[in-house]
Amino acid sequence: MKRLLIVLLFIATSAAAQQKTILFDAAHKQTAGNADWTLDEDTCGTAQRFPTPDQAGITPATLETFWSGAHSAMGIDLVKKGFHVESLPIGARVSFGDSTNPQDLSHYNVFVMPEPNIALTPDEMTAIRNFVQNGGGLFMIADHAGADRNSDGIDAAGVFNALMGNPSVFGITYNDNKSDKVFGWFDDAPDGNFTADATSPIIHGAFGVPSPSKGLGLFGSSTMTISGAAKGHVWKTTSTHDSAIGVTYATSTFGSGRIAAIGDSSITEDATNGCGHKTFLGYNDPKYDNGLLVANGIAWLAGGGGSQPPQPQPQPSGTDTDISGWKVTQANSTLTFTIPAGTVIPANGYVIIARNATKSAFESFWGVTLGTNVVYLNSAGAFPQINGSESYTLKDKSGTVVDGPTIAEASGAKQDLQRKDPCTSAHTSSNWTIGATTSATPGSGGGSCAKGVIINEFSDAVTNFSMEFVELKNDH
Description:
six-stranded mixed sheet; 6 helices
C-alpha cells in the first residue's frame, strides 16, 4: 500500500508540472575551485546538455547518484516531480529569440543559475532580462560575499547584481561585502525565520509546507535587500521577518515573468560529484527543508508563463515619451540644454543633441543615415561643448534626475563614450565602451531593459567641434 501511494503521488505531481523544462546554467565556471554545480558530467568539469543515463529512466526509487554532478540531487528530485531538465554546457550561448541557437531560452520555462563565477556579457544580460520579461522564470543561486572561486575579481553575488542593474530592475540586491559578517558572510542553520504571509508560494507551496525547526541550512551565505516588486520569504535568524533587509530567500516579478533568489549554494548542492571536488550534503540533507523550499520556488517560477515557454514579442513595442522641457546638464564646464516643446522620443528611439550642424551635414560627417526613430536637435552652438572632463545628467521638467551623472570624458577629450547597459548606473565606468571619436554610432546602439529615457552616447568630434553630440535613448 505504501509503495502504491508513492507511485500515485509521483503521477499526480508529474501531471501538475506538465513536463515543463528547466535549464541549468553550467557555462559560467560552475566547476571553478571546489564547486561542482552541475547535474551530470561525462567529462570532468564539463556538463553535457542531456544528463546520462537518460532521465526517462528515473523512478520514485532512483538515487541521486544516478547522475554525478553536485546538483544531481536537485535535478533528479525535480524530474521525479514531473519536470524535464537540461544543462547549458561550456561554450553554449545564452540568447532569447535566436532561432539558430538550439538552447535559446525561448525553449525553456525556467533558467536556473547556480553560482556563476564569471561576468555575464551585455548580450547575455539583455537575453536573460528579456526572457523573464516575456514570462520566463529565473532562479538565482548565489553564495557568501567574496566567493570568487576562480579569482577573476567577481563572485556570484556580483554577477547577479550586475544582471539586475543599479537600481535593481527586479528589486533584489545581494549584500556583496565580504567583510560584512552580519549580512555578507555567515552561517545560519537552521534558518526558519519565515514570512507571516500565508499566501507565500515558497512557504505554502506546491510541494508542501516546510518546518521552521528545519528551515534552510545556510553555510557561508549572503543576504539580500529588497524593494519594489520583490518579496521576502525567509530571513536570517537574527533579522526581522517581513522587513526589507537580511533576506535569505526572495522572489520578484518583472514584466510577465518571475524571479527567485537565494543567498547560498549550500542549499542546492549535494555531497557527491564526479570530479573529486569538495561538496556537501545540502538539497537532500534530512536536517533541513532545503529541497522542499527550492522545489516550491521552481514550481512557482514555472507557473509564471502559462503552459508554453516564453516567446519574444513582436517589435516595435513600447511607449513614446514626451520630453518637452527636460534638461541635459553638462559639468564641469556647466551648460544646460532645455529640450524644446513638442519633442517626443519614439519607443526604442533616440534624440541627438548636436552642437551646431544641420542634419544633413551631421549625417555626412559621421557617415550615418539617421532613421525615422531618431529626433535630431541642432543647439545652434550652445550644447554640448566638449573640451575634456565633461559629464552629463538628464532631468525631467520638474528637475528630478532621470539619469546620470555619467562618467566623464577624458581630460583631453577626443573620445566617444557609448552606454552598455541602461539598467546599470551611468556613473559606473565598466558600463561604458570608450573609443576613438571615429567609433561613434549616433542614432543606434545601446542595451535594453525597459528602463526609460537614458543618456546613451556622447562624443567629441576632434576635427570639427560643431559635430559634437549627446544622444538620449528611449529604452521602452
